Structure to design on (352 residues):
């Protein structure tokens, strides 16, 4: 039996899905994390002693000790700046590092973090990225070879145009529903959507907003909705578990991504899989998935342009977008296909 270590934030649903796949294929799965709190992690786990993110690198010696004891066949480290760098410090081989977002888009702007990123990328036997754009970014950071695109992907058995909606439950049968499914952090700029709401409602009185998520900006965002007198037009559901998301997505007529930075957004992929047209910030990570046939763009933080695009898409009545978007995900970002690709890469490294 092959043993894989996930050196990662074990509370991430995407890491847990990764682990579930490898467990289902007969791998022995162990999680190692320096952060505390691993809700949803089902497998063996090892807690490193220094949980402060600013001191994470002090876990180097403990990590080496643990790896010597458990003798894995491979480390899969997710997030270059922290877990990838820690994996590099361990000197364990083979090491696969996954780049997933701000670790290579934002952190390299900091001189110290740039050193962490370059060290991790240089040391890794393979680097996995979740988008074509991300692969190009890595070249600029000095890593052009042994880089593979593997999307976190979507399970289309769960996310597809045939899932049930929550319209009746929420009394929304006669409303046009605009949805958002990102958590409440600055990088996701949910404030932009809330500020667009009064402008949309003025033109489309039956419009309502379904905002799914949670996070530290919750109170601020709810207060902003009240200040703009749109709180009765916005449904804040709070955090919804990943497996329960499909009916909420299906409830919407259009999906909005206001994120300021993304590689490939899994939330965007899930909305496409359910068949929604999408309006997203005009950033490189989104351009791989959205075009004039299945959605629209707006400039980051520009709530006036966002409102115009929402009104435009309401009136456009895009034809065949549901099947078009589902097919795009089925062909390119099906979860099982991407996991099989990752497993094949891992096996090739172990066999060397």
């Amino acid at each position: 039996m092959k043993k894989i270590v996930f050196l990662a934030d074990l509370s991430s649903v995407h890491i847990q899905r990764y682990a579930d796949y490898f467990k289902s294929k007969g791998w022995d799965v162990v999680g190692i994390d320096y952060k505390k709190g691993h809700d949803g992690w089902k497998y063996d786990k090892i807690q490193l002693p220094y949980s402060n993110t600013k001191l994470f690198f002090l876990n180097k010696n403990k990590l080496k000790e643990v790896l010597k004891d458990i003798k894995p066949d491979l480390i899969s480290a997710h997030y270059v700046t922290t877990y990838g760098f820690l994996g590099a410090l361990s000197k364990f081989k083979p090491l696969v590092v996954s780049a997933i977002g701000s670790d290579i888009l934002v952190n390299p702007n900091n001189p110290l973090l740039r050193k962490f990123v370059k060290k991790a990328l240089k040391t890794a036997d393979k680097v996995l990225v979740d988008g074509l754009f991300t692969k190009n970014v890595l070249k600029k950071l000095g890593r052009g070879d042994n880089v593979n695109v593997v999307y976190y992907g979507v399970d289309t058995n769960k996310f597809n145009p045939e899932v049930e909606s929550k319209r009746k439950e929420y009394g929304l049968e006669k409303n046009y529903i605009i949805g958002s499914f990102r958590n409440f952090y600055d990088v996701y700029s949910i404030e932009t959507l809330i500020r667009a709401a009064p402008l949309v409602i003025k033109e489309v009185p039956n419009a309502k907003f379904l905002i799914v998520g949670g996070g530290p900006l919750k109170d601020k965002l709810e207060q902003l909705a009240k200040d703009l007198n749109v709180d009765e037009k916005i449904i804040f559901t709070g955090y919804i578990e990943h497996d329960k998301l499909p009916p909420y997505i299906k409830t919407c007529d259009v999906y909005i991504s206001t994120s300021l930075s993304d590689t490939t957004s899994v939330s965007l992929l899930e909305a496409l899989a359910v068949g929604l047209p999408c309006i997203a910030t005009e950033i490189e990570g989104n351009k791989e998935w959205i075009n004039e046939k299945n959605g629209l763009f707006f400039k980051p933080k520009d709530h006036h342009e966002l409102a115009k695009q929402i009104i435009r898409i309401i009136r456009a009545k895009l034809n065949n977008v549901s099947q078009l978007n589902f097919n795009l995900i089925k062909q390119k970002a099906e979860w099982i296909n991407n996991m099989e690709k990752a497993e094949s890469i891992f096996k090739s490294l172990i066999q060397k």
